[in-house]
Amino acid sequence: MNSLLYVWMVISLKNVRIYGSIVKSKIFQEFTSQRGHTLFNHSSNSNFIEDFIAAAYVLCPDIIDVEGHVFIADFFNSIGNQNDNPQEKLELLKMQHGNDKKKVEQWVNACSFGDFFIGKYCESMENEKLLIQFGDILVYFWSKRLNELFPERSFVVDYGEGLAGEEGFAITFYES
Question: Please, which of 25, 51, 87, 89 could form a disulfide with 47 given CB 3.0 to 4.6 Å?
């Protein structure tokens, strides 16, 4: 009877498909501190509800379009005064970057990976595998967000060392 059950299980598994996450589950082995047996379990053991909500906002941030220039709203708003007129702020940025739309968007949308974790430095920030996985995650979600908001436009979301004058690994995006 056991062999029949095994044959049935093998046959039925032919129709099973696993769709992997954008996060490689083996990356969990790179964690310096594991609080669980899996990534999902680690997350459940590590975060408060506020942490999940904040992380979701980082992955799907507010976006602002100022005269065809697209920015992460938090980054754009952090330049100058929060109450500055967006068009005037854009004009200053265009002057600073030689009226080059790509350079303006790259500069405003650039963020060092370290800036995502201010006050939370740990050994993992030196692990290139983890930094690359983090970059892949941001590229995935920011690309989805931009494509959702601007399906008729094309954007490049990229990360690497020293992008747009940032220190270490950084991410940015611009319209191509």
Answer: 51
Question: 19-23, 92-96, 135-139, 155-159: which range is least confident on average?
Answer: 19-23
Positive or negative, the Cα torsion across 166, 169, 175, 176? Answer: positive
Exposed (0-12), middle (13-18) or buried (19+): which is 67, by Cβ within 10 Å? exposed
Q: State the Cα–Cα distance between residues 148 and 129, nearest whole angstrom.
A: 29
d(C-alpha 75, C-alpha 111), whole Å: 8
**Cβ neighbour number for residue 119 with a 10 Å cutoff:** 4
* Residue 7 structure tokens: 């044959």
Measure the CA–CA gap between 138 and 111, rounded to whole angstroms. 11
| Partner residues linked to 175 by β-bridges | 155
